[in-house]
Design goal:
This protein is of the alpha+beta class. The protein has six helices and eleven strands. A hairpin with an 8-residue loop joins β2 and β3. The protein starts with 11 loop residues before the first strand and ends in a 10-residue tail after the last strand.
Length: 279
């Protein structure tokens, strides 16, 4: 392992990875993954990184987020030989990124570090605004539900998700993966005492399928507003049939909150703020 890096550019050292924790408002992005003729988070990040290292080849992303989905704790990594310390990367990128994107933590790891393969677990949070009164502060940031919701029925439904299951019924039609077994450690409704209209659904798991969290949320909501009979989760886990579940919740209420990584990152900055871990 090379010695401590210096702020600023200049001499080169052996290749290593820089690992960034990134927050973004996904309202005006077509997701994070690269796309042709579309504004994506990865394209914005690459453009900013290349102002500090023109030799950037690629960006490794921990978790795909779709158009309209937000993140507070997305993780990306890239290899570089520049002698710029994590602190320098965070401060330098802050001046290059648009207001909708922010690097909140930077660290160093061995070359080739891939957060998608090293992630231990991920926390997603989905925000629901309950009631008929519109709130401009949650426009494009929460799903507004007019119908009364039975939180008790929704939580009972969520409990059936816990553990290891075949979640093939809980994926979007464009997900081609053969292995659809996943483990969920937490599926819980959380209310906000300061804002009783807000309901959060938190889901923690090792890996997720395409649209999995949004299908889970849509199903819980449909059971909670009596559009779907209770027991839908159990039925779908048994049948593997998407038709046994509810709607796919809109993208704008979904947040990638945190990704837990192994304790192998170095020189994290800010020093008081480590890569977030799931409680």
């Amino acid at each position: 392992m090379a010695g401590p890096l210096l702020d600023g550019a200049g001499e080169t050292s052996s290749a290593h990875s820089i690992v960034l924790t990134v927050a973004y408002d996904g309202s005006h992005f077509s997701g994070i993954a690269p796309q042709t003729n579309a504004r994506t988070v990865s394209a914005v990040l690459k453009e900013a990184i290349r102002t500090m290292d023109p030799n950037l080849r690629g960006l490794r992303i921990a978790s795909r987020t779709d158009s309209g989905v937000h993140a507070r704790g997305q993780v990306v990594a890239f290899d570089t030989e520049t002698r710029i310390a994590p602190r320098g990367w965070l401060l330098g990128l802050s001046g290059q990124l648009p207001p909708e994107v922010s690097v909140v933590n930077a660290a160093r790891a061995k070359a080739g570090f891939d957060p998608s393969k090293r992630a231990i677990r991920k926390l997603y949070r989905y925000l629901i605004l309950q009631g008929s009164v519109r709130d401009p502060f949650y426009a494009d940031r929460a799903w507004r539900i007019f119908d009364p919701l039975s939180h008790a029925l929704m939580q009972e439904e969520a409990n059936a998700l816990l553990g290891e299951h075949d979640f093939k019924a809980f994926r979007g039609a464009s997900d081609p993966r053969v292995n659809t077994r996943r483990t969920l450690e937490r599926a819980a409704l959380v209310t906000d005492e300061r804002e009783p209209r807000l309901l959060a659904i938190e889901v923690v798991g090792n890996r997720f399928l395409f649209h999995m969290v949004r299908i889970i949320v849509g199903t819980l909501v449909d059971v909670g507003r009596a559009r779907l009979a209770p027991g839908a989760v159990a039925r779908a886990l048994h049948s593997g049939d998407r038709e046994d579940l509810g709607v796919t919740a809109p993208a704008e209420g979904l947040y990638l909150e945190r990704i837990e990584l192994p304790d192998e990152l170095e020189e994290q900055w800010p020093h008081h703020s480590k890569i977030p871990t799931v409680a």
